[in-house]
Amino acid sequence: MAEFKLDASGLLCPMPVIKTQDRVAELNNGDILEIVCTDPGALNDVGAWCRINGHKVLVAEQNETQVLIKIEVMR
Amino acid sequence: MLESGSGGIISPLITITPIIIMTRKIKAVSLISGGLDSLLATKVIMEQGVHVEGINFYTGFCVEGHTHAIRKKDKAKPKRNNALWVAETLGIKLHIIDVIEKYKDVLINPKHGYGANMNPCHDCKTFMVQQALVWIEKNDFDFIITGEVMGQRPMSQRKDTMPVIAQESGAGDRLLRPLCAKHFEPTLPEREGWVTRDELLDFHGRSRKPQMALAEHYGFDDYAQPAGGCCFLTDEHYSKKLVDLWDARGNKEYEMDDIMLLKVGRHIRPAKNFKLIIAREEGEVNFMQGYRNRFISIKTISHSGPLVLLDGQPSAEDCQLAARIAARYSKGKLENEVEVELRQINGEIDLIRVKPIGISEMPASWSV
């Protein structure tokens, strides 16, 4: 298991989802990916993408300027 | 009997291999836009026991997401990507594919031309089916589904153009349109018995009533109904701004930032070499802030006013004019003088005082 980061700041949906999808494709079961975004829509969209594809959302939080999502890759 | 190498006699080995008949599940990929038609088309095929996964192509012009995130007035609406919502509702995987670069040729050189605006619908559909075909060949899927309905759209969904799309995309009879399949010759999935033709549909025309009835039958009641479709290129105002951009530059090239900025602000072009993009509300101001290191920007200081970006190659004189226009859209528009911050791309700032431009000095033709 390893931890990785993805900076999707400045991108509007669906680009954070696409970046997440492409990054997860390179990871292994149990790997953790932390995604930082600025589009609040990513909070729902990345979560929905994870549910569809069976990955686990560990953290999904939003402050004034950023959205932080941490997921565990499930294969 | 066989003779062994040492001269002895060996018995032939008789191996009995059990015959296992592998029944491979038929797999289809469905083009999911996030609207009702693709939701229903996918459901119709899933009901026949076919394994379906969704595919969604992101061209950069999709109405989904972007402007919802930008404009503050839209923030009250729940944010969701409808293609993801459709996939989750159906319980299928969704593959979102970035085709921004590949799509440029479709928009710039459409073989079948544009629709009422800058929408190359016929070529766009052909392109997407073509991309889906590449995907199914790579992923060992059997056929492609779309939610098209014959007669629903004037370019790409006509009785005469739909077979052309199937042919030109290369998909041929591996393309199935479940909602109107009965208007066409049986496709490969029907002929092979992968799906039952009797359970496919014969929808046609612009009425949405059959789709709504089918949605009710399946228990779908929260589907998206985007007014004007799911593409900015069908929007008259957006298309005018795109054409203006191309005319001003003398070519049809564009980057992602260009098409993003066409979605926000009031656009005013006093001359071919530059235009102003004036934020209309707080959400747009926040979004445009991110472009201040790539564009000259203007902000009124003595009076509250919108953020303005200058696109193009404005001269010093042009910047003065732009500052006067920016002042016009500030709270000081009726004052004799407004203090304005002119920020260069490298961060250098000039504070200048200008007289807001009079409304009579701004020809209507400047407004894009």
Describe this structure in words.
With 75 residues, chain A is of the alpha+beta class. Chain A has one domain (3-72): TusA-like domain (Translation Initiation Factor IF3). Helix content of chain A is 31%, strand content 33%. Chain A has a 4-stranded mixed beta sheet, covered by helices on one side. In chain A, helix 1 (15-24) runs parallel beside helix 2 (41-53). With 368 residues, chain B is α/β, with parallel strands linked by helices. Chain B has 12 helices and 13 strands. In chain B, the strands form 3 sheets. A 6-stranded antiparallel beta sheet of chain B has the order 8-9-11-10-12-13, with helices on one face. Chain B folds into 2 domains: 27-232, HUPs (Rossmann fold, 3-Layer(aba) Sandwich); 264-366, no CATH class. The termini of chain B are far apart. Chains A and B meet through helix 1 and helix 2 of A and helix 2, helix 3 and strand 5 of B.
Topology overview:
The complex is a heterodimer of chains A (75) and B (368).
Chain A: E1 3-8, H1 15-24, E2 32-37, H2 41-53, E3 56-62, E4 67-72
Parallel strand pairs in A: 1-2
Antiparallel strand pairs in A: 2-4, 3-4
Helix pairs in contact in A: 1-2
Chain B: E1 2-3, E2 9-10, E3 27-31, H1 36-46, E4 51-58, H2 66-70, H3 82-90, E5 94-98, H4 100-108, H5 121-139, E6 143-145, H6 161-169, E7 175-176, H7 188-191, H8 209-218, H9 236-249, H10 256-261, E8 266-271, E9 274-278, H11 282-289, E10 296-300, E11 308-312, H12 316-328, E12 338-343, E13 349-354
Parallel strand pairs in B: 3-4, 3-6, 4-5, 6-7
Antiparallel strand pairs in B: 1-2, 8-9, 9-11, 10-11, 10-12, 12-13
Helix pairs in contact in B: 1-8, 5-6
Largest sheet of chain A: 4 strands, mixed
CATH-level-2 architecture of the largest domain in chain B: 3-Layer(aba) Sandwich
Helix segment count of chain A?
Answer: 2
The ordered H/E elements of chain B are: EEEHEHHEHHEHEHHHHEEHEEHEE
